[in-house]
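Quick look at the format.
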Amino acid sequence: MSLALPAPRARTLSPVLPVVAVVALLALPVSPGGEGGAGPADALSALVVLFCVVRLLRQRRRPLSRTAAVVLGLPVAGLALAAMGASSPDAGITGLGRYLQVFVLVPAAVLLLIRDRSDFRLLAWSFVGLAGWEGAVGVHQYVTGTGASYRGETIRAVGTFGPQDVMGMATVVSFGLVCAVGLALGRGPVRRRAVAAACALALLLPLALSFSRGAWIATAVTCSAQLVLAGLRRALRTGAAVVAAGVVLVGGFGVGTAMLQERLSSITQVTDAPDRSVTDRYTMWEAALGMWRDRPLTGVGLKGFPEHRDTHASLALSAGSDTDGAGAGFRRQPLLSPHNMYLLVLGEQGLVGLLALAGGWLALLVCALRGLVRVRGARAPGLDCALVACGLLVWQLTDFLYADIGGPSTVLTAVCLGLAGWWALVGGAGRGEALPR
């Protein structure tokens, strides 16, 4: 009789780990003076898509349900039409590849690589970890005066993204904060919820020091929506804790500097006495609307906004924005987008492209909310995943009102759409725990 013990069953590594690696690569510093285009994370995201395709071929199973294929594939028709109307073949191919990467291919790959709620939470915690790292770098920049230039002082927290992408750190920190709030409001273990709540409170400081009004507004709207969706009683308790933390930060640690208070008060003054950045943004919005009026259905073509900007912009538009600090020298950065994703799509792709893209985003949000209502009403597990998915969608759709894609952090938008898409199209429908490992 053999006394050999049976070998332990090997644990299968999660297929979502390559996506976690994409998130981790965003922690690498951007080279000073870079153009803010594609980076290592974008290259790895392409390999993730290839890995997903190979995995599907080996498993020999249908990759997407009919609903998922329609929702994720809806933008393709508008993008192809806009690519054919581009000013040059190079611009059309480059723009088509970028849009397919961010809004179709990477989200679909992330959706297919997530097996269950454990994989979903792993990816959400990777967002929190990246936000913590970038936030720590940003706070150090503010304290030591080594950040990006703001009002003549190098105090703006930009993390590892540099002054050429001042919204990068604010976006990453906002995503991490939204994920942390969703994990804290769920029905998981008390210790996990407490850690998530502590992370959310800690991320408020670097978000404030980013001086990004758009990120502030989107985060406030999203966290308020998450609190309401989690339940009124819990919303009141959490709201009181946030107010108390704000009092400690402002009163105890002196976070409420004059510049920060001035930046906060300027949110309500964008129409009465707008600063130069707000004036430029309004002017570019008018330029995008002018392009749409010229070609209402198909727009001026992908990558066509810079070429047609001066034709439709008024004389109020400045030559560009100044960037300095955070390890890079002074530079005049041209204004090549309207800083409004909806108007950018409307101007370059027309009504066809806007309805296709925004229609897919709205469908994801509706499906995600339906899944949240289902798990909350039945008190089923997965409320934290639902709150994270709905929160990421609400934040992105709100932020698109005064931001667009561009820079190294753009790949994180694609991962967010895939994360939210899994809950909306798989996990929220009750199919997220029966996938083969």
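Next, a different chain entirely:
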Amino acid sequence: MKPVALTLGDPSGIGGEIAIAAWEALKGRVPFFLIGSVDHMRVIADRMGSRVQPIEELGQIGEGDPTGLPVLHHHLPREAVPGSPDPANAPGVVEIIERAVTLTNSGEACAVCTNPISKHVLKSDAGFGFPGHTEFLGHLCGVETPVMMLASTLLRVVPVTIHEALVDVPKVLTPELLENTIWTTHAGLISDFGIAKPRIAVAGLNPHAGENGTMGREEIDLIAPVLDRLRGEGMDLKGPLSADTLFHTAARATYDTAVCMYHDQALIPIKALDFDGGVNVTLGLGMVRTSPDHGTAYALAGKNQANPSSLIAALRLAFELGQRRAGAAA
């Protein structure tokens, strides 16, 4: 069983703390290792009453002390101060993500799980030219339009447009983007989640899904034609549907994933339903990638107060999806 490659994220955030807490919760059940500074992780482990296990290669995971989080060392220029991101460490944060992707694409790891980063810090201090993790991972994997899914046991959602200002969404939303998002979601539900015949609900862009054009025509002119075309190719699609009635209990029972038109239309309902259990999954990369659905939480860093639930869920899901992909390939 190949392990999951976990990135450190911003070393001044809560990534190291929740990684150690996740190890304590999952050891012996979900094999994973963290890529980051061994010295940095030792400081955190000592503070939390835990231990780390430096490894030189992935074959060492499981050898020696079973109570220590396996850490594959990656140098950081400066010692990280909790809650105070250091520009000098920004390039190392990016390099760690690149290393995790390389190990997974080479087959040494079964999946990537990424701890939170500060996009603002990376953009200003490391020349990071991407809106977020999802787009950067797409670049590393040679995928132009990766798809972001938020998943929990209560709901799965996919935003068609991701990190776009709301005023720009109607300009960015195109038939091609919508079709690609639905195709990638459909394929991911089959290959990664093991759903043989996915049922996908598609939200409208406007209030009440445009109400027959009186509140906007995107549903009539853009969304409905794409759905009709894909239904003709055998997909089980519902919509365009009014987003305000799409997420109550009875509605959620009728679909496997909801495709939404913009970021908050998708993320508000899942965070309201399952804030601590939501997992970010990137579809269409050619590899499995998950992430906890929260940020760096600088205000909590160094206080041993961060909730590891979302990372624990992300590691479990990464391993589950990675094993399913490996089994399908075999």
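The first helix runs from residue 15 to 26.

See the schema section for token definitions.
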